Amino acid sequence: MGIIKIDVEQAEIPKRQHSQFMRDSNREVMTRHRDKRLGKHYKNIPETQPGGDYGYTKRGEKYLKKKRRKKGHDRPLEYTGHMKRTVRNNSRITATQTRARFVAKNYYKMTDQRRKEIEAISTEEQREIADETGVAYWQKASRAMFERKKKKSIK
Fold first, then answer.
1. How far is CA 29 from the centre of its chain?
2. CA 133 – CA 95 distance, rounded (Å)
3. What stretches of the chain show up as alpha helix (H) in DSSP?
4. H-run or E-run covering 94
5. Residue 146 has what pLDDT?
6. Is there a contact between 33 and 121 (Cβ–Cβ < 8 Å)?
7. What is the mean pLDDT of the chain?
8. Greatest CA separation found in the chain?
9. In angstroms, what CA-CA distances link 48 with 40, 54, 103, 137, 140?
10. Measured between alpha carbons, how far is 64 from 79 in angstroms, rounded to an integer?
């Protein structure tokens, strides 16, 4: 009677490495969201209209008329542009393995409604972010240097 020994190598990502990949992927995707998609919050598109995907409230006609007269535009969430620049440059992104958060900071205290309007993410953007997170994760996990080889002996 002989003994047959087979070594089976199985690529496996340790829990610690998995959580690091997820945290890095979430942070990377949320940073991309701030840099690429946040600008849409300040444009006249259907998502930024009252009742749109971002949940903007209707501004008073008197305020809009004054803004058009003084500043020459009617872009949402923007009067002088100072808040727009401050939010993009001073926002804080925190990430864990389960989620990432974008916290808008401003040079003055914002109301809860305005903060919600700036931090809002549409359902389409949620899908894009989920896809981008998966791609970023697999790019990190598929590198050979992070693979752990597990040997199993079968007798």
1. 5
2. 12
3. 15-32, 61-71, 82-90, 112-119, 123-141
4. strand 92-95
5. 62
6. yes
7. 84
8. 96
9. 8, 6, 19, 31, 35
10. 10
Tokens read off for 57:
């409230």
pLDDT at 154 over 80: no
Q: Which of 104-113, 122-131, 143-152 has the lowest mean pLDDT?
A: 143-152
pTM: 0.76
Q: What is the DSSP letter of 111?
A: P
Contact 76, 83 (CB under 8 A): no
| Tokens describing residue 50 | 């009252």
CB atoms within 10 A of CB 118: 21
Render pLDDT for 39-91 as a digit per residue (tens, 0 to 9).
899 999 998 888 889 989 999 999 999 999 999 998 998 899 998 898 888 88
Residue with tokens 């496996």: 12
Residue that the structure tokens 């401050």 belong to: 86
Determine the pLDDT at residue 68: 94
Coil, strand or helix at 9? strand
State both tokens at 26.
């979430």
Quick one: which H or E segment has residue 103?
A: strand 100-103
Rounded to whole angstroms, the Cα distance separating 18 from 5 reads 31
